[in-house]
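User: Fold this; C-alpha cells only.

Assistant: Input:
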Amino acid sequence: MKAFFVKYRRLVLLAVPLILYMLHSITLKYLLENNRFSSTKTLLDQYIPFLDFAIYGYLLWVILAAVSLFFLFSCLGDGYYRLIIAMVLSVSICIAVYIYFPVKMDIPDFGNSAFLDAVLKNRDIASFPNLPSGILFNSFFFSVFHKKKHDHSKCSLITLLFGLILAVWIVCALLSKMAYVLDVSSGIFTGMVSSLIISLIPFKQTH
C-alpha cells in the first residue's frame, strides 16, 4: 500500500481539492443555522452595477484553478505539491474566519432566471474572505513561480496573461455581486499570504 501511494502520490493528491470542497460545504451548512451574520458591503459596492451575465465569468474560477492544477501536475518539480498545500492553507484560513465572522450577502434582484436563482441563493453566505479569489491567486502564483524557476524567457508573458485573467475575473465577481470589494481583496490577501509562506518553505526534490 505504501508503495502505491509513493508511486501515485500526485494522482492521490488530486483528492485533496474534493476533500476541501466537502469541508467548505459542511462549514456553510453549519453557518446556515447561525443568526449572527455581518455584512462587508461598503459604499463603493453601492456604485457597482449588477450584471447577471457576469456570473458566468465568475463561475470560470473552477476551470481556471483546475487548468493551473493540471498544468503543475504534468510538470516535474515541487510546484504541484506547493499549490496543493497552499490551497489547504487558504481554505483553512477562510473556514476559520467564516466560523468566527459569518457574513451574509444581500442578494440582488436578478429576474426570472432559474440558473441564476439557484447559483445566487446557494452562495449567499460566507463570502469573506472570498475563497475562489484566494484559490485563484494560489493557482496563478505557483504557475508563474514554476515558470520563473524553470523557464525565465516565458515568465513575463505568463505573468501578464495570468494577471489579466485574474483582473477580468475580479471584475466579473464584483459585477455579478457574488462578492463585495472587501471579500475579494481579503481573499486575494489570503491567497497571497498562503502562497508566500509555502513558497519560502524548502522542499525535498520531488517528481
